[in-house]
Amino acid sequence: MDIYMEVKKAAMESGMWQADFINTKDLSFYPEVREICKGNVCRNYGTTWACPPAVGALEECKERVMQYEKMLLFSIKYDLEDSYDIENMQNALFSFKKNVDIFDEKLQTFLSNYLLLSNENCGRCCQCTYPDAACRFPERLHHSIEGYGFNIYELSKAAKIKYNNGKNTVTFFGGLLFGTAGEKI
């Protein structure tokens, strides 16, 4: 089995709904997305190690990403009672984070060099230590995919996976970056 099949299989076995690959050379980084972060609509800006400004400047994020050759964009769709079902949206986000953790555990068994990005903040701790102290769980920290300046709609089109999954649903996305220039993938 080649590494691509193994990575995608691990994603699907971790509960991901859709997943496909994008070459990192085809990725775009948008300062406008970082400005949305700065607007703090999600209330995570400046409060967690997983989000800006803690993840570094956009150029630092780009440098980190461009060390890899591939991104596996993945998602999970969750059904809601209606478009105002905030409780189930939050439950879905926590569920997504658990699936990303499962994926991370599977990856550790066969992939040594990768960067795993998740949706929104970390959410692992009740109160993040940012900016007063180091992260309590740096080995389990997954930076925000949006915090890296990615336009998720654009990524979903590039990976040919659905962004909008119908009425009364919410879909969360993450990205796995892997494969380096000297590594056979």
Protein topology:
Elements: H1 3-13, E1 18-23, H2 31-38, H3 58-65, E2 70-79, H4 86-107, E3 114-117, H5 152-159, E4 169-178
Antiparallel strand pairs: 1-2, 2-4, 3-4
Specify the overall morphology. Answer: globular
Proportion in helices: 25-40%
Number of β-strand runs: 4
Order of SSEs, N→C?
HEHHEHEHE
The total of helices stands at: 5
* Helix-and-strand structural type: alpha+beta
Largest sheet: 4 strands, antiparallel
- Beta-strand percentage? 15-25%
Low-confidence stretches: none
Mean pLDDT: 93
What is the spatial order of strands in the main beta sheet? 1-2-4-3
End-to-end span in angstroms?
11 Å
CA radius of gyration is: 16 Å
Count of domain modules: 1
Q: Can you walk through the features of this model?
A:
This protein is of the alpha+beta class and 185 residues long. The chain is built from five helices and four strands. The protein has one domain (3-178). Helices cover 31% and strands 16% of the residues. It has a four-stranded antiparallel β-sheet, with helices on both faces. 35% of the residues are buried.
